[in-house]
Amino acid sequence: MRLIHRSHRAANAVRTVSPSGELFVASVVMCMILSAFGDSVDPSLFGELGFEYALFDLSGEFSVLAMRHWHLLQLFLAGSTLAAGIMVLRIVVGAFFKPLESAPPQDAEKVPIKF
Amino acid sequence: METDFFSAAFLSALLAIVLIDLVLAGDNALIIGLVARNLPKESQNKVIFWGTFGAIAIRAFMAIIVVYILAVPGFMLAGGLALVWIARKLLTPEGGGHEESHLAKPATTFAGAVRTIVIADAVMGVDNVLAIGGAAHGSILLIVLGLAISVPIIVWGSKLVIKLVDRYPSVILLGGAVLAWTAYGMIVREPFLASWFETHPATKLVIAVLIFSISLAPWYSERLPAHMKPLVVVLPALLLWMLAFEVAGTVWKVQIDYLMASSQGEYFIEGLRWIGWLPFVALFLWVREQFLQRSQRAARDTH
After folding, report:
1. Which residue of B has its CA nearest to A7?
2. Does A77 touch chain B (CB under 8 A)?
3. Measured between alpha carbons, how far is residue A72 from residues A20, A48, B22, B39, B133 in Å?
4. Tell me: the pLDDT tens digits for A2-40?
5. What is the pLDDT of residue B134?
């Protein structure tokens, strides 16, 4: 008998959640797992590499090691930034690919070409 | 835990406690209403006041006791495992219809009503205090502050909370994720396992993914197509399989690192570790398919 069960939407959150809310929580979870990854790697393994590793870590896979020290607030902020980034990327990619799609044959916008 | 009020650690723990309090809050108003409905009108207001006061007091007392209990070796691990189950239960969609509390029977006396309200709140709040005890990292100040912020919101602003979660159901998902994250923190901080985690740091990632895959299963299983649903069982089972070999390697002093394997037995164990799970997964998929076919046949026969 939880307070949230008074709301049908909240009691069935996994079904009623909005796509943007879901993207935000998924991004936060991703950041939490990356933080756990940073926590699971022994930093002494990379300590010897020092500046070299910092210079050649172009893809940034080792930079997540710093996330081991992040707190919930930082993970929320990183998650919201990640979610915003994914959303912008989705809009930009959508805007790029939309003109490439052919209009349906019966569509009003279809330009009639007759030979 | 730092007691600097504006440090990220302190604010994060406070945020986690308030969020956990909101999503796991019991419906006190309903309990009080059910218990006090048979009492005379003049007693009802007194029952509401003393019932609410008793519920808050017992909640604060339990939360402080939990902090001390979690300091006992073994309890942090048990609490973490319990939180995984609580997070999963929070995200599981309700079957339909509102659950009527068996704890809240109508009382006939003032003392009986207050006692029932306090006991019902204590029983309903066990998961809540366990979660905030884990999120508080042993700080009594954080627990008291968290309760001072969230209890008035829940008691006098329950409609506001309902409006918030109704408008943004993602708050519930976020609460589930924070519970899973707290469970991970509790398991990793377990004093019994501290030395083991130092020698096996990679298992922390396995445990994190395992916890998230179990706690958030109701969420991602909703999004998976029918043929991918077995993943909800197979993924955690596979992670447990891998983890079991790490544990076995420590307990029985078995060499499970393929680079260090030297005898045939060690190579066999290594092979078992990486491909030994395949027959079990195949068996599980076959049994599941048989059950599905049988239930479909039974449903067809009844129609």
Report:
1. B166
2. no
3. 20, 30, 17, 46, 16
4. 888 888 888 888 999 999 999 999 999 999 999 998 888
5. 86
Distance CA B125, CA B36 (A): 20
Tally of domains in chain A: 1
- Inter-chain contact B173–A25, Cβ cutoff 8 Å? yes
Answer whether residue B148 shows pLDDT above 90.
no
Q: What are the structural domain ranges in chain B?
A: 8-215, 237-303
B residues 115..154 contacting A (CB < 8 A): 124, 154
**A40: contact with B, CB 8 A cutoff:** yes
- Say if A80 falls within a structural domain: yes
ipTM: 0.85
pTM over 0.80: yes
For residue B302, what is the enclosing H or E element?
A: helix B277-302
Of A29, A33, A73, the CB nearest to B15: A73
Give yes or no for A61 touching B (CB within 8 A). no
Reply yes or no on whether the pLDDT at B95 is more than 70. Answer: no
Q: Which two tokens stand for residue B272?
A: 């078992």
Q: How far apart are CA B177 and CA A9, in angstroms?
A: 18
A103 CB near a chain B CB, below 8 Å?
A: no
Q: Tell me which residue range forms the domain holding A95.
A: 3-100
